[in-house]
Amino acid sequence: MDHLQTEARNPASTELDEISSLQFVRLMLGEDAAVVPAVASQAEALARGVEVIADRLRAGGRLVYIGAGTSGRLGVLDASECPPTFNVPPGLVVGLIAGGSGALTRAIEGAEDNPEFGVTDLKGIALSAADVLVGIATSGRTPYVLSAVDYARSVGAFTIGLSCNPGAEIISRVDLAITPVVGPEVLSGSTRLKAGTATKLVLNVLSTGAMVKLGKTYGNLMVDVRATNEKLRVRTNRIVREATGLDHTAADRLLETCGRELKTALVAQLAGVSADDARDRLQRTNGLVRAAITTNGTNGKNGHHHKNGHAKVAPENVVLGIDGGGTGTVALLAVPDAGSEGGWKLLGRGEAGPSNRHAVGTDAALAALNEATTKAFAAAHLPRAAVRAACLGLAGAGRPGDQEIVREWAARVRLSAAVEVVEDAALLLAAGTPDGVGVAVVAGTGSMAYGRRADGTTTRAGGWGPLLGDEGSGYSLALAGLRAAVRAADGRIAPTPLTERLLAALKLTRPQELVEFVYRGCDRAALAALAPVVLDVAEDGDPTADHIVREAAGELAAAAAAAAKALGFGASFPVALAGGVFGAGCYRERFRAALADRGLTADPLSFVREPAEGAVRRAFGRSVRVS
């Protein structure tokens, strides 16, 4: 044991018993900061683990964790959380700990040192070649775990070894080794600290990644829910509202039509098909909601297809749509399909980092565009080639000079002979309004309104940045909530739940701690992430939060009204909403009500989750013009 890093003395904590509490906290957190990079160094192994686990589970196998002490407890914890989180049968993910269930709450001395116990426990659950076994041993040498992985390999199960020491014994005895090396613990040998945190992170990635691959989510929504009680019925209604933009009554009506089946309801609404057709699509796509919505549920079962389920296509029939912003870039490849919703079918999707030139620089922005395009072709299982037409909607590309730089890059990489570069807000109208005419309202970290008339005339309102504007944005909502919290703490206004809820979200204990959070390194995005707290408190009926949300929604309605007036729209006009804050259905309804207070109606009102679809539609329009 003397050679193990996890057992070594940490030179940073040799005077642990003499330092102040504040020094201790800073030391602990400083050491913990090394955990995430250590786990990130295992990204490729983790990705392979996710794929293997998903494949085995899809084929009827199980995911089994086995470990001793802290390692075993973490495995049992992850296994026990899978049924309530992903609605999987309790026996699909199994956690075994040396010493049995009694070892979860007290140490069972000697249990981990007996190699026979590991084999006995695996035989007790009839481990087979269909299963995946994850042997968890921080040291990489625990006899209970080593014997278990040896037995698992002997019966044909796929074995993964998780340890935190380089050159660990378990590495050579498993099919896949995941080894985040976190170094010596602050308290020598106490592997419940950094090693335990690394273990929890790894298990989070493996189980969550596999469940996502199995279709347990749509975006970041948990959609494999059976509404067996009132709480779950409320939850399924909320998920339908979040995913589709329907109001509460319409969502409930849809669920009733679909037999309270959440996935069926989502596919039926978003693909515009009947409940029976939605079930058929889900069956053909192995329960993957997005695939059922976007690919007509064919899943490669008919005709001559690539392994991703798409018929062979020539690049000259393909269009490319790109949405690029300050946080990420999405590229979509599509082909015409008269039988699909919108008249086109998605072939491949690629993602990359930010492509706002003014935020990350020209080289990084163009590299992100290139990476996202390449990944979209790879996802479509097509060689990269010039497409029929391409539309790129990019943040920071509103001026002719910015657009020309992107067009020059597109010419160099032979993207297409027909390339359109527009500002990103233009995609929202193309994706969310009839004929791309109306007003788009964005409420993310910032906010703005963008309008377009049928003759091509455009206008904008808002978008002046955090000091001069951005009213109604996530940043402004969060800042108003924090200001209300500190005023309440002073007694300047009545007490509000905002104080407690915001502190809890930030893991703080006193309002005074907000000063350090806000003024020492907190950026706009971190503040904007608190907006859902303000919205939730408003929905719970708090008058202070309700006033903040109503004021914010009113500002967005004012921006939309200004854009509509500038374009000469009447009292009713199409509106497309986008941005993370509008992801909350309650905020969309507040905006609709604020418009009504001004005598205006959004008809239709849509929520755009994938602006890149607007780029696809514009690309198809351009391909028609150049044909």
TrEMBL record:
- Active-site annotation: 81, 112
One Gene Ontology molecular-function label: lyase activity
Q: Does Lyase count among this protein's keywords?
A: yes
Under the heading Pfam families, the entry gives:
BcrAD_BadFG, GKRP_SIS_N
Coiled-coil ranges (or none): none
- Enzyme Commission code(s) on record: 4.2.1.126
Any extra detail in the entry? Answer: A lyase-type mechanism (elimination/hydration) is suggested for the cleavage of the lactyl ether bond of MurNAc 6-phosphate, with the formation of an alpha,beta-unsaturated aldehyde intermediate with (E)-stereochemistry, followed by the syn addition of water to give product.
Which family does the record assign? Answer: Belongs to the GCKR-like family. MurNAc-6-P etherase subfamily.
Functional summary from the UniProt entry: Specifically catalyzes the cleavage of the D-lactyl ether substituent of MurNAc 6-phosphate, producing GlcNAc 6-phosphate and D-lactate.
**What protein does this entry describe?**
N-acetylmuramic acid 6-phosphate etherase
Report the gene name: murQ
